[in-house]
Design goal:
The chain is of the alpha/beta class and about 160 residues long. The protein is built from 5 helices and 8 strands; from the N terminus they run H-E-H-E-E-H-E-H-E-E-E-H-E.
């Protein structure tokens, strides 16, 4: 994992390398999905909330619409897992170098498999924090799928 460049720089390089258009918004720091939607002026459902979890014996990233919660029963059913828990703040920091709430929906940047709830696709464009509580990126959902190639499923309620 490249820790010499910031997470924002790594996202920017990933997207530019694939010719993907995206917008950048610098704003006051936000710490909840609701605050982020308000400062961006976007619907809460278009926020791509990234959650680092441990399922069975593997660390993974779930990406959900910000107006939804992770459904442990749905994840267990869909992936055949018996165990699932959220990563601790310390585990998140160790894996990503970031604080919860600033993590972008690109598990690939951190060596994590990415599982995206298909309802995020109800939005033509998505928004997310880009490794910083004060920097957001907006991009099309279709381009997100092309850039990250996440596993799609029903993981939220």
């Amino acid at each position: 994992m490249d820790r010499t460049r910031s997470v924002f720089e790594r996202i920017e390089a990933l997207l530019r390398g694939q010719g993907i258009e995206f917008g950048v918004l610098r704003h006051a720091p936000v710490y909840t999905s609701q605050q982020a939607a308000e400062v961006r002026g976007t619907p809460l459902s278009s926020g791509a909330k990234a959650l680092v979890c441990k399922g069975e014996n593997v660390m993974v990233m779930f990406v959900l619409p910000a107006d939804r919660k992770l459904s442990s029963p749905a994840v267990r059913r869909e992936l055949g897992w018996r165990k699932l828990r959220f990563a601790s703040k310390e585990e998140v920091l160790e894996l990503t170098g970031l604080e919860p709430g600033s993590i972008p929906p690109f598990g690939s940047l951190f060596g994590l498999p990415t599982y995206c709830d298909r309802r995020l696709g109800d939005n033509e464009s998505i928004n997310f924090n880009a490794g910083d509580h004060a920097v957001s990126i907006s991009m099309s959902y279709a381009d997100y799928l092309r850039a990250e190639i996440p596993h799609l499923g029903d993981y939220a309620e």
